[in-house]
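Supplementary Methods, section 5.1.

A reviewer requested that the exact input to the structure prediction be made available. We therefore reproduce it here, unchanged from the version used in the analyses.
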Amino acid sequence: MVYHHLQPSFSGGEVSPHTAARAEAGSFSRWLKTAQNFILHAQGGASNRPGTWLVAQAKYAGKDIRLIPFICGDEEAYVLELGDKYVRLHTSAGPVLGENAQPTEWATPYPAHEVAHVNYVQYNQVLYLVHPAYAPQRFVRAKDGTFTWEEFMPQYGPFRTVNTNASRCMRLTQEGGEITVAGVKAGVTFQPLVYPQYALMADFNGQWFYLDENFGCNIAAMVNKFNQTFGAQGFAAEYKNGVVTVTSPAATGGDANGMELKLRYHEDPVESPREVAVYTLSGGTNAGTVPDSGSKKQILESDFDYFRPAQAGGIISLTHEMEGQYVAGSVGYDGVSQTLKSGGDWRLKTAGNWTGNAVLEKSGDGGTTWQVLKRFARESGAENLSDYGTLEETSQMYLIRLRGENVTGEMGYELWSDAFVQEGIVRLKNYLGPRKMEVEIVQAVASDDWSLRWAPGSFSPAAGFPACVFFYQDRLGLACTATEPQALWFSKIGQYQDFGHQRTLQASDSFGLNLSAKSLQSIRSVVASGGKLFVFTSGGEWTVEADGAFTAYTVRARQQGERGASRVPALAAGGRVLFVQARGGVLRDLVYDYTCAAYLGADLTLLARHLFFNREIRELALQQEPDELLWCVMSDGGLLTLTYQPQQDLCAWARHTTPGTVCGVCTVPAPGYDELWLCVRRANGMCIERMNKRLASKAPSQQLFLDSALAFNFAEPAAQITGLTHLEGQTVYVLADGNPAGPFTVRSGAITLPAPAGRVLVGLAYEAVLGSLPIQPPLADGTPRDRKHRLNGISVSVLDSRGGCVGVEGGRLDELVYAPQKAYNQAPGLQTCVCHKVLAGGHNLRPAVVFKQAEPLPVTVLDLTVEVV
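The structure derived from this sequence is encoded token-by-token as follows.
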């Protein structure tokens, strides 16, 4: 009996062997055994993915980089190459060059092994970047088209919990002369790489001290062994919240600068490591004396051992309750009164027989400059002044005085200010000892009295820096430090650097929020979607929102799940939020379910779990047009796509291969589509590439299906192709005037074609493969799975295609699509047709069909019809 089996769609994607036998599933007819280098369309067809153009090679061939999109307008998009303590800027035309025709470059604090942990967000033409071990940074495009990279430290906060221990107080004083300083510990803080498939070996300052007993990179055991080995010398290591801190003895901190801790990752300890991470101690000084500069220094004192060198750069608030103040006296022609401190209300009375002007002034910088607060005039015989007022609502403390202006006679005065509370802020500069630190004043400190109401800033080298950055309701948001892993902070509305507040908390003021979970859950990523803020922690999923305006009075946080998320930033797609589950191998969505009145989600990797076996997702990038594709970079350098349209119940996975390992991806808008950028470690270094728009032109010579490719256009046809240094020693293929040719081996950066051509595309080849699940014809007497069948023939519907082979899995593949040339050496056009092929092969229990495109030519398969006997 002959049966004609139709596979009308490939929109189910590649499924795992565990799923392949589920013939009863409604989507079985859309599933595939293999989908390699194919884009699976929501409409049902499948097209081989386009190739990539080489944009540039990274600065360092052997070091990691990160690609970050920077969108400055509808027609102006850049991609940042974030590498080993540098950043470069690229466009689709290549690197942005400086005056010396070299790539423009800016210095950054991030070493190569840390760039993967940088979190970023863009607002207007400013890109904000954070990392838990470094101060926040920003990359700015100015109105004149210039770019700057600069440190971005929040101002006026935020702060940790206020001290309430009366035995621990601080005060602000001044000092001069020679200063004796304690030694400063050298140190290094880092987030260690963890590879479950490798064994960890470690040495410090050239001395080996640790080797994993088993695979898995036991960082805690390594830290314990470090302390056992080097603790007697005064060195110490700490492992907390996923971060390792190593410090030297304080007295000889300068001698420890430059010492290195090396972590080596081995598949086999007797062989060379697969990767080496080097962490260098720095910032130490030996104990001694430092000469004073001759000017008074602001010194913050504590009455207990508190300060550490690593606190430099952080801030501390010092709060004093000030009593109402009163001054009285007389002012002559242009005299001034005594000053008093005020944080709010004031009152003024004058007396005596005088004429002229009385000017009430305020100073917010300690008396250096003065501004007019109010001006009064009095003529002879008029009543004396009696007035009151309030300073503008602020957190600032002012000095107030009365100044005479052309006063005749003596103007008697009385000036009052009401009691107020002043929160002074200082920034820590230089470590002078465990009880002293040189500071600079950020916000005026009201008194030099000891105060128990002090609070350290949330961000500093000692406390850590935010790991997440986001925008919500016109506020800049920061989240998660080593000391406050469950905290979020929101800036003032429209003032993204200001994390302060007024004496009476206003709706527009900055505020913080702490997630109260039943266990420690460090925040991994934050994304806004659907008017809410979704916060993903190591142990759960949360929503943060407000009834009406988003303020400290209306904000509320609710936990929606307890699965937890990895450090891969979540993103919004298809009206849902996608996130990688805590262990890195599961991708989930999150959406509100009105039936359950709760946020629920599905495991999007469930049917294709084999693609994630012993692998983790390291990066996500959403390409919304022309197909809704989610690109996933895997921990082993592989690349996957998910065609995701939840409204159509569509979730289709495909794998993508290329000669090399993919290290990162991002997307930027381009005319008519979203352009995918990749960084790929190839044989000759790290390449930055962008994926071509598929079939932007149907002209045979314009179709790119090669990777890391370059295009050459000649006025006169040529056979010698040069400028291929990035492909040196590699086997390449060519599309010459629309005709595929190759292979060729690049020697001295050049290849020679068998015949001259006017337009030549040169790059690395890849195969696109579609493999069906076993064909199972329906039988009246039971299942076909234990019976042999033979595939007689196949009909394939193709669209705008050239080339391609088809056959029975494990057998011979025959060319499918063929069109004769129009003239000698002229490339044929694309074909849209139904092609039939007789299949060779015998009877098999599980016969299946394979379609392969090995040439650099386009092919789109719409359906397969198989004749089964």
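The longest strand covers residues 707-721. These observations are discussed further in the main text.
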